[in-house]
Amino acid sequence: MPANFRGELRKSCTVETRIQLRLDENRPYLTVFGDSELLAFQAESEAKAQAARARGEDFDQDMHDMAFFVGIDEVNLDGAGRFAIPREVRESAGISDAIFFTGANRVIQLWDPQRFLDLGPKNSVIDGFCRKFMAEVEAKRRAKA
Known about the structure:
This protein has helices spanning 3-10, 36-54, 61-69, 87-92, 113-119, 124-144, and strands at 18-23, 30-33, 72-76, 100-104, 107-111. By secondary structure, it is an alpha+beta fold. It has one domain: 3-Layer(aba) Sandwich (Chemotaxis protein chec), CATH 3.40.1550. A five-stranded antiparallel sheet has the order 3-1-2-5-4. Strand 1 (18-23) and strand 2 form a beta hairpin. Helix 5 (113-119) packs antiparallel against helix 6 (124-144). Residues 72-115 form the SpoVT-AbrB domain. Keywords: DNA-binding. GO terms for molecular function: DNA binding. This is SpoVT-AbrB domain-containing protein.
């Protein structure tokens, strides 16, 4: 994980060597966040349930929570910022041998670079970073061959 992301991530970790990795089948990327964010997500779920009840709507908080929290794995982060992504999770997110990191406030998104360019938010600055990253990855692949 790039150092600038690692520093921000560690601010939301109660244990600096543990991070949360979330796979959501409705999103084309993986999400990484610190464990203190779990409390924020739980509070958001409770707020949604309370708002639904106040409007007289049905809200199955158990099903909502299961859909959100079932895709979360806690993984180890070493001092150099390395962590292992389970193969099944990587494959489900469409990630092969390169990962493009982008930040979104309190979470970090992990994308396959080409998938990011195809499906990610359109931002010429971030697209430029991704294209540069892809060129570096390709150069490394050619050097290995």
